[in-house]
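Task: sequence design from structure.
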């Protein structure tokens, strides 16, 4: 089961708000956060924010392969990304911001990258487990963007099975979102506690029975998305 192109775009616009504060996404958004291994500082970058210790190297490799305007300069840093801390390298950070602001190829590469690295795996999980509703896909995609997957430790906190195993889709999603909400709300990391608005939005839409994401607008962290 896959979403229509229109619903896919809408789901992505909501998650873009979560990540960079706008439905369109800020391609040049770059922040340094203490959310890496052992609370180390790392760069997060791009329309839906990928991390220095995560998939940033893959994104930049795709940009270099696409022959972007700043490809040569970006390539000179590739061997360091993910292996040497770059959070304090001002030249590297300026380069990434310039590439996103000045080169359409970087923006096109980001769109392709976030699809390949996050949307497609999320959509595969969604289909394999028998889900069909747009709100369910929003929950799935947001989990992949925010956590890289659907965490098993959260799935173990409720008994409902996914639809492919005979469970009720709405009950599974409601249970998962509530488990994720409580995890974020009471997390030891303040950074994660501050992201509880992600699950609160879904709980609000469940309350509105907005499973098809058809009742608009949807307010994501104070921003209306249509």
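Answer:
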């Amino acid at each position: 089961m896959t979403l229509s192109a229109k619903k896919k775009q809408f789901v992505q616009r909501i998650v873009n708000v979560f990540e960079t504060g706008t439905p369109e996404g800020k391609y040049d958004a770059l922040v340094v956060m203490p959310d890496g291994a052992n609370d180390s500082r790392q760069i997060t970058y791009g329309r839906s924010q990928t991390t220095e210790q995560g998939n940033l190297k893959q994104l930049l490799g795709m940009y270099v392969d696409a022959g972007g305007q700043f490809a040569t300069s970006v390539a000179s840093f590739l061997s360091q990304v993910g292996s040497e801390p770059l959070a304090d390298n001002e030249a590297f950070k300026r380069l990434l911001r310039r590439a996103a602001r000045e080169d359409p190829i970087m923006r096109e590469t980001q769109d392709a990258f976030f699809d390949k690295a996050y949307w497609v795996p999320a959509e595969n999980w969604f289909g394999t487990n028998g889900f069909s509703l747009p709100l369910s896909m929003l929950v799935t995609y947001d989990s992949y963007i925010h956590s890289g997957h659907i965490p098993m430790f959260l799935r173990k906190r409720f008994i409902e099975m996914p639809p492919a195993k005979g469970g009720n889709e709405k009950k599974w999603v409601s249970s998962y979102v509530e488990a994720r909400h409580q995890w974020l709300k009471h997390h030891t990391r303040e950074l994660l506690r501050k992201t509880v608005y992600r699950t609160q939005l879904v709980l609000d839409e469940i309350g509105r029975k907005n499973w098809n994401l058809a009742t608009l607008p949807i307010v994501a962290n104070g921003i209306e998305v249509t």
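The chain has one domain: 5-225.
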